[in-house]
Amino acid sequence: MPFFKVIFLCFLSILGQSAFALGAGEVLPPDQAFKVSAKALAADRIEISWDIAEGYYLYRNKMRFESKTGQIRLGEPVFPAGETHHDENFGDVVIYRNTLNVPVTLSVENGASSLQLLVQYQGCADRGICYPPQKTTFDLKLPAPAATADPVKQLLKGTQSLKLNLFEDELLPPDQAFEFFASVKDDHTLHVNWNIAEGYYLYREKVQLELVNADGVTLGTYDIPRGIPKQDEAFGQVETFHNELGFDLPISRSTQSAQTVTLQAKYQGCADRGVCYPPMSKKIDLALPVAQQLASAPEQLSEQDQIVQSLHKDSFAVTLLSFFGFGLLLSLTPCIFPMIPILSGIIVGHGHRITTGRAFLLSLSYVVASALTYTVFGILAALFGGNLQSAFQQPWIIGLFSGVFVALSLSMFGFYNLELPKSFQVKLHNSSEIHRDGSLLGAAIMGALSSLIVGPCVAAPLAGALIFIGQTGDAVLGGSALFALGLGMGVPLLLLGASAGKLLPKAGNWLNSTKAVFGVIMLAVAVWMLSRILPGNVIMLLWAMLLIFPAVYLSAVDPLPENSSGWRKLWKGLGLTMLAYGLLLLIGFSLGNSNPLKPLQGLGVNTTQAAEPGIVFERVASAALEARINQAAANHQAVMVDFYADWCISCKEMEAYTFADPRVKQTLKGYVLLQVDVTNNTDDDKALLAKFDLIGPPAILFFGLDAQEKTANRVIGYQDAETFIKSLQRVKS
C-alpha cells in the first residue's frame, strides 16, 4: 500500500507543476486589454463603457449585465452597430473594437439610490488567443430623480397634448417613415439600411431579404442586429428598431463577370401612436463589379468543429448527454483497450475472495477516478486552454509508470505481495480487503493515472469537447461535461467488473494460472508504454522475450506425456505458436527491423526489390512552420502538415499502416509533406498547437496554394488508408 501512496504523491506533484505551466502567455492582461467602466447618467439610466486595446476585440453576444440590488431591475441594453466578424468557432458574430458604450435603462423601486452592477464580457486578441469570460462588479451612486410634477398640471398638459394630436398631420407615407437603401460594399458584400422617422419603429422579425433575377448569385447567412425588446399586443414579444437599422449581406457568386441583381426587401413597422403599417416590399437593382475571386462553396466544418458548433447550441442537459455519447464512441477506439488488462489485473489480484459485487466496486472506483481526472483535465482546459495529458508523456514518467506495471506483474507471479504493515492490518481487519493491489484506493489511483498516461489519444470527439470548453471558459460546464465523457468511456470497464465475479475462477490452481496470465499482460502493457520512448528495435527484442519466456512455461519445448488431456495439448499448441513468433521477432531484431507485425520485412530480397519505404516527411521546427508553408505557396505547391509525437500511439499507427500504403503515397504526390514533432511539448510546440486550436497529436492539416489552411478538411485522430484517401479526395475537390 505505501507503494501506491508514493505514486499518488508523485501524481499530485506532477499535476500541480503541469497546471502552473499551462498558464503562461504573452498577451495583455484582460483588465488592460479591455478597460471597463460604468457610470450613472440619470436616476433611471446607466452606461457601461470599454476602452479596447489595439489588436483586441469584444464579442457582443458574450456580454451580460446583472443587477445585484433587489430594488432595481435592468432594462435591455442598447448595443451600437458593431463589426461583423467571421469566427472559425462561433460563425458570424458582431464584435467591437477601440471603444464601446452601452446604455441600459433602470426600473427603480422604493427609492433605491445605489446599484451594485455585475458585468460579464469576453474577448480575444487578433493573434488568435481568446480570454475566458471576465466578470467585474461596480457600485454606482444614482442621481436623485427629477421632482414629481403636480398631478393637476400633468393632467392639463396631457389634455392639451391630446387636443393637439387630434388635429396633427396625418401619418407619414411608408417610404418616408421607413426609407430603405441598399448598396454594393464590395464584390462579395452588399449593405442595407433603413432610416426610420422619429416616432416610428421597425420590427426585427418582419425583415426578410432575397435576391431575384440573380443568376449565379445567392445570399449568404446574414446577422440582423439585436433590437429593443417590446411586448406587442399583436405579435407578442418582439424586437424593434428606432432611428436606424443597417447591416451587411454576404453573397456567393458562381461567375466573375460584372452583373446586375435585384434585391427585394420585405419589412413592417408602426408609429408610436399605435398605428401599424401593412407589410411593405421594395426592390432595388444593384450593379455588382467584377469578382476578384469566386467564393467557394459553403465551407464544410471538420468533424470536431461540427461537434463544437452543435454543443454551442445545446442546453446543459443535452451537452452532458452528448459528452457521455462521445465517451461511448471513444470507448470503442484502441485508446481504451490498454485499460482493460489493467483493470482485469486489479480484479484478479484480489484473489479467490472476489465476488460480483466486489469486482463491480473495483471497476466503479477505477472508472470514477478516471472520470474525475478528466474533470480536472476539463477545468484546466477551460481555464488555460492546454493539454494536460501531453505533460505526462515525459520519458521519466512513462518509465516510472512502466515500472509500476512490472512490479504489479511480479506480484501476480507470486514473488511478493503488496500489502499494508501488520499493525495496520490488525487495526483494519474488519476491512482487510483493502490490503493489496485489489483495493478500492489502488484501483482509483490506477484509474487516475491510466487516464492521463496510458491513453493520451486525441480523437475528434475529445478534440471537439476540449475546444468547446476552452471557448466557453466555463469551468463548471467543462468539469461536468468531461466527467460525463469519462463515464461514457468507462462503460466497457463497468461491464467487465459486473461480469468478472462470475467469469473468473474462485480458487485452486486455476486462480494461480489466471494470475500468471494477467502478470504477462501487465508486462505487455509495460512494453507497450515503453514503445513511446525506446527505439523500435529494442521494443522488438522485448516483445520477443515476452513471447518466448511464457512459451517455455507452457511446455512448448517439453514433450507431451502420454494420454495428455485436450487442455494440455491446447496450451502446448499456444506455447509453440508464441515461441515460433518470438523467434521470428528475434530474427527481425537481428535484421534491424522495428515493426513487430512485419518482423522479416526485407529478408531474402535485394535492395531493388526491397519494400518501398513509407512517406518521408520534412521535419520542421514549430517556429519555422509558417515560413516553410509560405515558401511552398510561392512555389505553387500545396502543403500537408502532420503533428506527431513519439508517445502518440495513433501517430505511429498512421505511420506504419496508413502512410505506408502505396495508394496514399500516390494520392499525396505533388504535396509538400511537413511534420512537426511535439514530443517534447516545448513552449513553441504549445504556442503552435494553440494557434491552430489543436489539443495534441495526431492531427493533419492541409494548406492550399494561397498558404491558407483548409480547416474543413482537418484530420484528427487515426484514419486507416481507405478513410484517409477519401479525406484526401475531399481536399482536392
TrEMBL record:
GO cellular component: plasma membrane
Disulfide pairings: 270-276, 335-457, 648-651
Domain Thioredoxin: 611-733
GO biological process: cell redox homeostasis; cytochrome complex assembly
Entry keyword set: Cell inner membrane, Cell membrane, Cytochrome c-type biogenesis, Disulfide bond, Electron transport, Membrane, NAD, Oxidoreductase, Redox-active center, Signal, Transmembrane, Transmembrane helix, Transport
Membrane-crossing residue ranges in chain numbering: 320-348, 360-384, 396-418, 439-469, 481-504, 516-534, 540-558, 570-591
Pfam families associated with the record: DsbD_N (PF11412), DsbD_TM (PF02683), Thioredoxin_7 (PF13899)
Membrane topology: Multi-pass membrane protein
EC number: 1.8.1.8
Endpoints of the signal sequence: 1-21
Keyword tRNA-binding attached: no
Location within or outside the cell: Cell inner membrane
InterPro entries named among the record's database cross-references: Cyt_c_assmbl_TM_dom, DsbD_gamma, DsbDN, DsbDN_sf, Thiol_diS_interchange_DbsD, Thioredoxin-like_sf, Thioredoxin_domain
Keyword Plastid tagged: no
Main location: membrane
SUPFAM superfamilies per record: Thiol:disulfide interchange protein DsbD, N-terminal domain (DsbD-alpha), Thioredoxin-like
Coiled-coil stretches: none
Molecular functions per Gene Ontology: electron transfer activity; protein-disulfide reductase [NAD(P)H] activity
Family, as annotated: Belongs to the thioredoxin family. DsbD subfamily.
HAMAP family given in the database record: DbsD
Function: Required to facilitate the formation of correct disulfide bonds in some periplasmic proteins and for the assembly of the periplasmic c-type cytochromes. Acts by transferring electrons from cytoplasmic thioredoxin to the periplasm. This transfer involves a cascade of disulfide bond formation and reduction steps.
Designated name of the protein: Thiol:disulfide interchange protein DsbD
The organism of origin for this protein: Methylobacter tundripaludum
GN (gene name): dsbD
